[in-house]
Specification:
Blueprint lengths: L22 E5 L2 H13 L3 E3 L4 E7 L2 E6 L3 E5 L3 H14 L7 H4 L7 E7 L8 E8 L1 H6 L14 H13 L4 E7 L1 H11 L2 H17 L11 E5 L6 H4 L10 E5 L6 H25 L9 H14 L13 H6 L7 H7 L1
Parallel strand pairs: 6-9, 9-10
Antiparallel strand pairs: 1-5, 2-3, 3-4, 4-5, 6-7, 7-8
Helix pairs in contact: 1-2, 5-9
């Protein structure tokens, strides 16, 4: 059984408080995750199934989700009390809330973050975004809810955070949308999604470095998710200005605030452009590459013919072959070229 001391807060006369925390994110080791799940079950939290989550539970004003990636997200009006009086003393065994930048000063360093959206979606573009942050931006975003866009299911929340990011003084952004026609041309030449991603990330970094005069102080590095086994894939794609900055590639880079902000901008660009395609062609384009996507692809071909599919979809996906009634490539060849 997990025993955690319970505490309450009470305001003194004339006290002044910051806006209560309503969203908190951190990573948990396996023993910490087990202890948290045990606590939630013992204290009557209602569990539910959620995609990509090892467990998700809620009770009253707190919603807790622990993802397969090892990331924990706590949301709701009771977030601050949960973090201060349950998570930190009983699970993490240390006080982190409010001390993040003390425990890790690198969180305040001026840097670029780069991420993409639309890579796994048959319909719609591939969008890459880059974001510059400095100490003032990082502090302005405390308690803002900015995190990896994959942990945000609401498109309206993505739009809200996008506006916040773009309106923050000192923050510099760039978005590189690769429409379907351009994407398919690039794929026919490069024969690799990773090569297209490398070009997009390099382009976003180059665009940001072209605005270096707006960055105070200048960025010390650019951080990107490591999507290719060989880190040279992106490094070799860097353009002239991008070669002047250290490139850091790592798995789960979205844990960095700058990369998380970039993921939000990229997602917003993707969903906005996908909605524009739906309006243009008068039909719904489901996200992903599921059976529902196959149905929509067949419907599109029936309405507009196979020649128009390249205007709305990524033609190397197996969905494109099925929609056109073509034999699918052998699996081994498919994996090599993806």
């Amino acid at each position: 059984m997990v025993h955690i001391a319970q505490a309450t807060t009470r305001a003194y006369p004339d006290s002044t408080f910051m806006k209560p925390l309503t969203s908190y994110t951190c990573t948990l080791a396996a023993p910490e995750a087990r202890a948290l799940e045990e606590y939630l079950r013992e204290h009557g939290y209602e569990f539910r199934q959620l995609p990509y989550a090892r467990f998700a539970a809620e009770k009253e004003k707190v919603n807790v989700v622990f993802y397969e990636s090892g990331k924990l997200v706590v949301q709701g009006k009771g977030t601050q009390d949960f973090v201060e009086f349950v998570l930190e003393p009983g699970i993490l065994k240390q006080a982190r809330l409010g001390y993040e930048t003390v425990l890790n000063p690198e969180l305040l360093l001026p840097r670029l973050g780069v991420d993409e959206s639309g890579k796994g979606d048959f319909f719609g573009p591939l969008c890459v975004a880059g974001v510059y942050v400095n100490e003032s931006v990082v502090k302005a975003w405390e308690n803002s809810g900015i995190r990896d866009s994959k942990d945000i299911s609401s498109d309206s929340k993505i739009a809200e955070l996008t506006k916040l990011i773009r309106d923050t003084p000192g923050c510099v952004t760039s978005v590189v949308p690769i429409g379907n026609e351009a994407y398919n041309r690039l794929y026919s030449r490069m024969k690799s999604v990773n090569a297209i991603l490398a070009w997009g990330h390099a382009r976003a970094i180059e665009n940001l470095m072209g605005q270096k005069h707006r960055m105070n102080p200048p960025p010390v590095r650019a951080i990107s998710d490591q999507f290719a086994a060989d880190k040279a894939t992106v490094a070799n794609a860097l353009m002239s200005l991008g070669r002047d900055i250290e490139l850091v590639q790592r798995h789960k880079a979205e844990a960095d605030l700058a990369v998380a902000a970039a993921s939000i901008l990229a997602r917003h660009e993707f969903v906005t452009r996908l909605a524009a395609l739906e309006k243009q062609f008068g039909m719904k384009f489901p996200k992903g590459a599921s059976g529902a996507v196959d149905e929509a692809a067949r419907e599109f071909v029936a309405r507009h013919g196979t020649e128009g599919l390249a205007n709305v979809a990524k033609m190397h996906f197996r969905n494109a072959f099925r929609a056109q009634g073509l034999p699918e490539p052998p699996r081994s060849e498919w994996k090599r070229n993806r």
